[in-house]
Amino acid sequence: MLSKAVKLFALPLVCLLINSAALAQVTTVYLESNRAERNSILAFQNNGGELSFLGEFPTGGEGVFDLSLKLGPFDSDQNVIANSEGTVLYAVNSGSDTIAIFKIGATGRLTPLAGSPFPSGGTNPVSVGLTRGTLAVVNKAMDPSRPRQNHPNYVAFNLAPDGAIDAGPLSNDSAPVGSSPSQAQISSGKRLVFDAQFLGGHLKSFLVDNNGVLTPEAFQALPASQFVGTPGPPAGLGLEVHPRKPILYVGFTSANRLGVYTYDATGHLAFVRSVRNSGQAICWLKSNTVGTRLYTSNTNDNSISVYDITNPLDPVEIQHLKLHGLGNSFQNIIDPRGTWLYVLTQRGSSSIPLGEGNTLHALRIDPVSGKLSEDHFVSLSLPKGTRPQGLAAVLTH
């Protein structure tokens, strides 16, 4: 009878242990301090909305010190990314032309991979993207501390099984001097890379071949008709692909509009329309995994907009939320469970006292409407003039 009782209770006990392990998972959020002399990754964990500091992990390189407060020329996205398994983290050292690569431990702590940091293949790396065992890197060549301008470039590297850079650059495609490329956005099929050149007023796309080589498509100018009456030439920041359809969303920054494009198998883009944004200076964009909601950071008024993209070619703005505290909204990321949106703000205005405005926000996503409410934010203690960048979020314990 005793052995029978053990058998009866064994399965429920195993299930209980599995459920307890799942409940013990938390989201760990990583951002880059972007310190000029000692760059690092800051890690925070979310326990029900309360962000707690996990630790600081040196990248072995330098960030970029920028007091210009100019919107656009020095801005970028995907400065920090994690692989889909949540086991490896990549981060740019924008001031020392290297890429730091870390193993993500079970508790969220970071350990540099052997050989890290690795050369970026250009000057002033600002964005990285992962596609089928290849790391795509955007080198902006706009570091304000190095005024001699080189050509920006796009390079690709093969990755080893552990996630380290194994070979490359496999390809090297340059951009016009001063064009300010900003992002290595990867298509949902992992065969294309998209970028927005902020000062060039162009979109750029690349086809990734089976060897990881980037083959460029022609530049495509932003549609001038969508920027009539705006100051200066057409300018865009922020790219996001629809997770299920060949659609690219683009922040038409200077027009306060969200652009919608379709693309084909080679990366050729076709403009469909743009829709109004209630914020000021729409920039970085993120879609949920099912492709029903799109979240945009609006830098100049420190806000987030929520779009219903159930009809993906005709987005409808359903919320415009001002963030608490000082700062200007930049990068954002949705956690792996789809329940939180994290937003990083910087001091992007002279009206904000020097040394303030650098903040990490946790916004709760309503499971039905997709709208946001702000639960918590933490001010980052960084040297005056430092502007943090990049966000990644993974599930850890």
Give a quick precis of the structure.
This protein is mainly β and 397 residues long.
Structure notes:
The chain has one helix at 2-23; strands at residues 26-32, 40-47, 50-58, 80-82, 88-93, 98-104, 110-112, 118-119, 125-131, 134-139, 153-159, 165-174, 185-186, 192-197, 202-208, 214-216, 220-221, 239-241, 247-252, 257-263, 269-276, 282-287, 293-298, 303-308, 316-322, 328-334, 340-346, 359-365, 372-379, 389-396. The protein is mainly beta and 397 residues long. The strands form 7 sheets. Strands 4, 5, 6, 7 and 8 form a 5-stranded antiparallel β-sheet that branches. Strands 13, 14, 15, 16 and 17 form a 5-stranded antiparallel β-sheet that branches. The model is unreliable at 1-21 (pLDDT under 50).
